[in-house]
Amino acid sequence: MQIRFNALDYKADDSFESSEYEYDGSLETGWKIRRNGADYLSLGPGYKLLKTKFCGVCSTDIDRRFLPHPLPQIIGHELVAESVEENPKKQYVVEINDTYEARGNKETDVFCTVGLPTHSPERRVLGIDRLPGGFGSYILAPQHAAIEAEGVSEKVAVLMEPFAAALQAILASPPKEGDHVAVLGPRRLGSLVLAALRAHRQFQKANFRITAITRHDHLVELSKKMGADDVVDLRKTNPLSLYKSFDIVYDTTSTVSGFESAIQFAKRELHLKTTNGQVMGGLSHLTELVVDELSILPATLENLSFHWPRENRKNKTVFLFSSIAEKWKKLLPGDIRIFEGNASDGEAILLSESFADSLPRFDLVIAGTPEEVGLAIRPNPKLETSLVRPRSGILVDTSIESVWQNDSKLLREFFQEGKVIRTSRCGDFHYALKLLKENPDVASALETNMISHMYAAKDLESAYAKAKDPSSVKVVVSFP
Known about the structure:
It is built from 16 helices and 24 strands. By secondary structure, the chain is an alpha/beta fold.
């Protein structure tokens, strides 16, 4: 099949330009994508041609130019699409990770075999990394990533990707019985985190309190509708009064000030859901921390056993940065394989025979300085790879006081009190759909309250500008 259409490419200067695209191929044989007559991307079998119906504008779209992926590109990944060749036509929501598993390939890699397909280095990401996204009239979706959206309205379906991502935060950092949790910045993603907390509480029949923290009138009312039991307006409340008030703070602000506030408001845990590519709290590569769904925890013997709630594995390899290596070599149990050195040493070890038949990442990294934490996340500025395995942890030893000064002083106190930073990225659409169908009041709240502005596809640039305006909540683009 051959499809031609015009679309607005997003450019590195935060502007758009019109381009002509051509898709030529099939699900069975693969596809050739051409842009303005030149070869753009070749795809193997396993991609389903879909026609875009709606696509939401999110914070990642707004900050796309800061991500380490090539531009120009058709961006947009929060979409509802319909089949082109099926009769009758079906409606789909699309998970964004393009992996061996999503395509249904027999070929695979070690990330897939250990249960981390969405972290495979070979993956592309719809509307973010190379694969054309939902601000174009047509997409090529990995066949198993296209999920039929039966039983929910189009206005709910277009929120499926961010709602599933919000649920992932709750699954990674679930409130405990009797907890008081807070969502800082309840706008686009933050409002969906409120809805996810509400759905999780109802589904699990759990008992915890939910507070939203904001500075905007329209978000006060929205937060109540989306699931908050209480709303704190920081224009009327002294932030110092919130010091250590919440067991978990879910930070969705994407701001340095928001991150610093979350550090101070949290009693036990800060869940970082969105970032802006900047150094925050003296730590670099926090965007990549979220991409890899990593955690930062105090360096304790207890935290050597850290893993995600749904994982069943044991940490067997630990990399020690030189600053704290001598101390920790004496403390680590004998069944853990110990490696040490600087970031370059760590990279070399992962490429050596020691990791020839296993995931090329350490199970844990122990760092002694803020700089080493950043290097554990991205040791090489030319590569999008970490020293530590996805969904695992970087343990921080804060005993060298002199290196935790100025911007990082708050974090040193945070970790010394035993608190942790967790992150999460994409979520499970099947679970999200199940939860929404079984909690119709949550689905109704999404449909009624979340979409603040709707634009035709021809007005994409205006939609993008409106999404940057704090007065908007969720901006959605519709296609004929």
